[in-house]
Amino acid sequence: MSKHYILTNATITNGFSFLIENGAIEIDNGRIAWIGKSDDLRHSEVRTIDLQGRLVLPGLLNPHHHLYSALATGLAPIGPTSNFNLILENLWWHLDKTLDAESIFYSAIHGLIQSVKYGVTTIFDHHASMNAVSGSLELIEKAFREVGVRGLLCYEISDRMGEDSLEMQLDENIGFWESHRQNNQIQGMLGLHANFTLSERTMAMIRDHKPEELPIHIHCGEDRADFQYCVDHGYAGPVDRLNEFGLLSKDSFLAHCIHLSGKDYELIRGIQPVIISNPESNANNNVGAMDIAKIQKYVLGTDGMTGNILGTMRSHFLQRNGKIADPLDIQFRYPAELIECYFPNAGKLAQGKRADLAITNYIPVTEINLGNLFYHLIFGVQGQPMYMTIADGIILYKDGVMQTIDEQEIIQNVKNAVRKLHKNYYE
Ligand SMILES: [Zn+2]
Questions:
Q1: How far is the CA of 184 from the centre of ligand 1 (A)?
Q2: Residue 18: inside a domain
């Protein structure tokens, strides 16, 4: 397919500072070459795609995902799941110990396809496969490259497998980060599972080995048990413990932030790490909800529940009875800033930037402007799959069909991997 084409007859918005009706976007060689009114188009000979009034959004970000859980649907826990620790022990930790190279790759590719269908073009993934640690991030990277999505990848370190494994987990993170610095599609972070699965000794070891610029990505105060563990070890809470070990900075990614102390909130206000709330996952695990009066700047993730980030915003909106401050900043402005931090020309729907776009099936028929855009997303788009998803100017998905990979062939391979994974899980 030509790398030069024009999308016409669209409502185009970056989600927070402009919205153009009857607009057009010219895409050339991976970048947005021009944005304007369809009537002002310059290149009549270039291939055009008429979007018939659809809504063009920036490619969406899922800042907290677990692609390793993408093949878990239908799996029964191997024991009781009456509290958060038991949910981890009897489902997720047992699943991650069962993963091998084949199931890591196909789990990632399946989860990525399910994300692209919902307009997601950048994913921050938090991976675990305790019996297949070394090389796991490269397998996931291969899946990202096949599907054509950007990502920050990490391995979630936890000391539940003993000391030998810890070193391997740390090496997997640091090695991957070092070999992918400044990469324009895939980079690394330092994944940590959660305070309550990292002993004092492990935290000290991580502090001593972590390169200063390597950002951490951790579950923080997800359940009361995480908070209590930190208090029992002499800290004010989970954020305080990270800070005391010198692991907290403005580049840190803290997922959940539900069970925190006054000092934890103060540290967040002062240091301003990236906070990721995961409303559907929190409801599913019955762990409570983040206090959005105390934490006002945050982004939304799916925590492995789904690839559907606008659907997650819809859940968030409904859980809070429609009372969310600055929803367009949470959905578009902050994600654009975050993506741009790691991938300098991506994230923003603007002339000269990489062309990452999500185009809805929804065609607005009522008045649309920045003031009511959010309600068009909640009541119009409704978290449905997109019409088209474009990353780096390449059309990845259009009208129900993946464009650059053979989804039917992949589904057969995914099913084969699932059969083996589920058999091993129950053995
Ligand atoms: Zn998570």
A1: 24
A2: yes
Segment 141-171, tens digit of pLDDT: 999 999 999 999 999 999 989 888 999 999 9
DSSP code at position 414: H
Distance separating alpha carbons of residues 419 and 427, to the nearest angstrom: 12
Q: How many distinct structural domains can be found in the chain?
A: 2
Distance between Cα 327 and ligand 1 center (Å): 22
Q: How far is CA 301 from CA 63, 80, 181, 298, 321, in A?
A: 5, 27, 24, 10, 19
Find the 268 Cα to ligand 1 centroid distance in Å.
Answer: 19
Distance CA 258, CA 295 (A): 10
Shared domain check, 335 and 355: no
For 12, 67, 265, 307, 390, the CA distances from 53, given in Å and listed in that order, are 9, 33, 44, 25, 17
Q: How far away, in angstroms, is 64 Cα from ligand 1 center? A: 6
Is 407 inside a domain boundary?
Answer: no
222 C-alpha vs ligand 1 centroid, how far in Å? 9
pLDDT tens digit sequence for 74-99 = 899 999 999 999 999 899 999 999 99
Cα(220) to centroid of ligand 1, in Å? Answer: 9
Whole-number Å distance, alpha carbon 254 to ligand 1 midpoint, is: 10
Based on the fold, state whether residues 153 and 262 are members of the same structural domain.
Answer: yes
C-alpha 204 to ligand 1 mean position (Å) = 23
What spacing in Å lies between the alpha carbon of 255 and ligand 1's midpoint?
Answer: 7
What's the CA gap between 99 and 219, in Å, rounded?
Answer: 21
CB 115 within 8 A of CB 61: no
Cα 194 to middle of ligand 1, angstroms: 9
Distance 342 CA to ligand 1 centre (A): 21
Domain ranges, residue 14: 4-59+348-402
Quote the pTM value.
0.97
Q: Which three-class secondary structure string do you get for 84-120?
A: HHHHHHHHHHHHHHHCCHHHHHHHHHHHHHHHHCCCE
